[in-house]
Q: What sequence folds into this?
């Protein structure tokens, strides 16, 4: 099971300057996660492109099945 | 019959090319087998749009080939006019903001 803190670090290091909040929405099992990400890198990007950046950051954990489901909510961080 | 990855890709492209709205999901609209897929079905029904649905659970390779093609790792995936609109989170966000019917062409 991935640690929530670990997932947060993966996203924050992929998107420097971002604010990331990870929560567990399936009763604390740790593999159904919600990521709320506010990042300056999202400026000017479509929702699809914003979500792709988040997926890319956690690609390995998603691919391995460590994270079964990741719900993503993005917003642009104004610089 | 042996089906190759190329044939699966050709079938995926055919479906998104022939249908204005196409949903790749787990299960079928009448019986979704995943909460995320069920939510997108609900949003599409709410919008009153007709769409083609493909159950990716029929063959594990559909999901692999689809994700490689769309650069999108998860299911469901909603396509409109051949372009990926997104997964469950984006569809719900667009529905909440009121943009979804226009994107689906039923505004």
A:
């Amino acid at each position: 099971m991935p640690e929530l803190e670990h997932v947060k670090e993966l996203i924050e290091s992929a998107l420097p300057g971002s604010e990331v909040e990870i929560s567990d929405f399936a009763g604390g099992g740790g593999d159904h996660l919600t990521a709320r990400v506010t990042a300056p890198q999202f400026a000017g990007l479509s929702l699809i492109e914003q979500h792709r950046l988040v997926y890319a950051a956690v690609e390995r954990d998603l691919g391995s099945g460590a994270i079964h489901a990741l719900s993503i909510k993005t917003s642009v961080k104004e610089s | 019959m042996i089906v190759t990855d190329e044939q699966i890709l050709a079938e995926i492209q055919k479906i998104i090319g022939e249908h204005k709205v196409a949903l790749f999901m787990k299960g079928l609209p009448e019986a979704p087998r995943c909460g995320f897929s069920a939510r997108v079905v609900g949003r599409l029904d709410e919008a009153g749009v007709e769409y083609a649905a493909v159950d990716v659970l029929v063959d594990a390779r559909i999901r692999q080939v689809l994700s490689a093609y769309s650069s999108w790792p998860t299911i469901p995936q909603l396509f409109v006019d051949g372009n990926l609109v997104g997964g469950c989170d984006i569809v719900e966000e667009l529905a909440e903001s009121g943009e979804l019917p226009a994107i689906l062409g039923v505004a």
